[in-house]
Predict the structure.
Amino acid sequence: MRIGINGTRRELTVPARELLLDTLRDRLGLTGAKRSCDVQVCGTCTVLVDGEPVSSCTYLTCDADGREVLTIEGFARSDEFAQFERAFVDRAALQCGFCTPGFMLTLKALRDAGELRDRDDVIAGLDGNVCRCTGYKSIVEAAEALAGEPAPAAAEARAGGAAASGSRDAA
Ligand code: FES
Ligand code: FES
C-alpha cells in the first residue's frame, strides 16, 4: 500500500491487522504518538488521517492506504507548530509531555475545521484527550489562546488579501 506520511509517500507491506500506531512507532520510528489505554479512550495515540483525528491504537494501517497521515513529527516542522509550542510553553500546559502530541494534533484538526472558536469548543473538542499531569486548566488556556489566533498560513492569506484590496483601492 502507499501512504503519505508527513508529506512523503511511503510504500509499505504490513499484515492486514496491523495497527497504525504500531506501523508508525515500530516500522517507521515515529514515536510521538503514544500507546496508553489502547481502547480509543485517552487520545495519546492521536494522529491526523486526511486531516481528521484518529486513534491510531485502533485504526488499521491498511485503512490509511492512499491517504495522508500527519504525526507530531511532521507537524513539528511547520510554522504553525511554533505557535502551538509557544501557547503550551507560555502557560506551562504540559508536564511529562506524554499526552501533548495528541492534544496538539486534536487542536490543529479542530482549528483547521473552523471548530475551535471559544472555550466551549475547546472543552467539547478535547473531550477525548486525557492528561494525567496538568489538571487541564493550563491546557484549556493554551487552547483558548490558539482559538483566538489564525494559523500562520491563514494570517498570511489575510494579509495578502488586505494588500491586494489596498492596491485595488489605490488604483
Ligand atoms: S492509546 Fe489510543 S486512545 Fe488511548
Ligand atoms: S503532561 Fe503528563 S500526561 Fe499530560
Notes: Residues 84 and 146 are 7 Å apart (CA to CA). Confidence is low (pLDDT under 50) at residues 161-171. Residues 94-99, 131-134 surround FE2/S2 (inorganic) cluster (ligand 2) (CB under 6 Å). Helices lie at 20-27, 72-75, 79-90, 100-112, 119-125, 137-147, 152-170.
